[in-house]
User: Fold this.
Amino acid sequence: MRSRYTVPQQNSGFTLIELLTVIAIIAILASILFPVFAKAREKARQSACASNMKQLGLAIMMYTQDYDGVLPYYQHPFGLAWYDDLQPYLKNRQIIVCPSKSEWNPDDATHKTGYGLNETVFPSGLGSPNPPAAIALAEIGSPSETIGGADKNQGNVYMVGQSFSGSSSWPYNVDTRHNEGANFLFMDGHVKWMRKGAGWSRSNELWDLN
Ligand SMILES: [Zn+2]
Assistant:
């Protein structure tokens, strides 16, 4: 007599439908998880970028102490960029490259740095016959509320700020490449990530000498 518990004989292996169902489930899980992984990787790069910016802030302070409290220009009268003036204090070229723009090479003529200084605080030293005076650190009343620099977009421009924005409500050249936002260096040395639109539009007084 046939046991009632006997499993009916089946064809061995999977049916096509079962196989397709498993593949579909894997595909759905992957499509859910991959954006999460990408976001986590970008978050890590954002942290590394904030660390770079913190070092840049320290280098700026060291430079300022050596130059009687006066900040560097974003562009030196002899054509050097700010990171050339800071190099004796940084002693590292890779630190001027944002990890999310790691394809940019500090020794490349057009794509050197992922960071730009605020042109209001660090004006251009170019200008004839007399370049504008550099800003003294003591002129900044609220360093913690004054942006010193930010993630920037164009490789061969070394500043960010208000004056070249045209009709845009956004400051010139800031790049929101870190999870819909950018890292900002403040003049007291702290670094903060701010989402696009969160208090750093062109008209915001964080860009002024406060
Ligand atoms: Zn960055």
Observations:
- DSSP finds two helices and five strands in the chain.
- The two ends are 95 Å apart (CA to CA).
- The mean pLDDT is 89.
